[in-house]
Amino acid sequence: MKSFIKKRFKKVASILVLLFVALFIFRLIYGYQTVTEPTISNRFHEVIDISSEVRKNYASKKYQLNSGMSPVSVDQKYEKIADVNTLSTKFDKEEKQIRAQVKDYKGLIQFENKSGNEGHRRLNLIIGIPPENFDSIYHSIIKIGKIQSKQITKTDKTNEYKELNAKKASLEKIRSSLIELKNKGGRIDEYMQLENRILEIEQQLQELGVSLGNFDDENEFCTVKVALSEVQLIEISTLQRIKVALEWTIKYYILLLVGLSFAALFTYLLLLSIEKIRTNI
Fold it and tell me: Rounded distance, CA 277 to CA 281, Å?
């Protein structure tokens, strides 16, 4: 009997020791995979707001839509934007890598903002990329640095394109009518009012021309927004790592033992209650 109890005690003690060692090793390895987690302000979106004058990038896709007896050709206009926010411990090297990717995939840097002192630098780029190279450059950039966030947004702009064309056609008709009225002659004040109105319409047509120019097949681009933030690598001594890991292990090991003890006690009381109920029955 004593030998059996001694074996059981050794077995339980071995399990508890192994559990403690496993927790300690887990904390020692996992807790220091990331040695720096800086707090970064959401400055990227603030900078992008400032860059509102950057041209909009649109692309198109032609496909056949089966409707009834004959297929219908559809020319879809869309806007596709990738947002990538990444941390860098090798800022100069990784900045060069991003710029090299832009060159390799025939991109165009449409907006650039670089700020901060060494050790805390930040680079924001808005890049126009040919649609056929969008996926390739996106997958290349997300391999640079340590990615904090990434997303791709695609928005259909077909209706907006059609509305701009309809508005342009309407303004051109109004302009033609006003020019005909002006050529008929009349009072000077009426002539001046017509001239001013024609100038206003000309200005609106110019603005529409710029907006429609963004949709031109020759200027098709998708957008990649990159925010590269520099962080400093903090060197931590081995003794400090062991100390922190040991403190964490002791704390959570005790909590785990307390939790297991309560669970065992609850199970014992539950079984005892069930046994009493059976006995009474």
Answer: 6
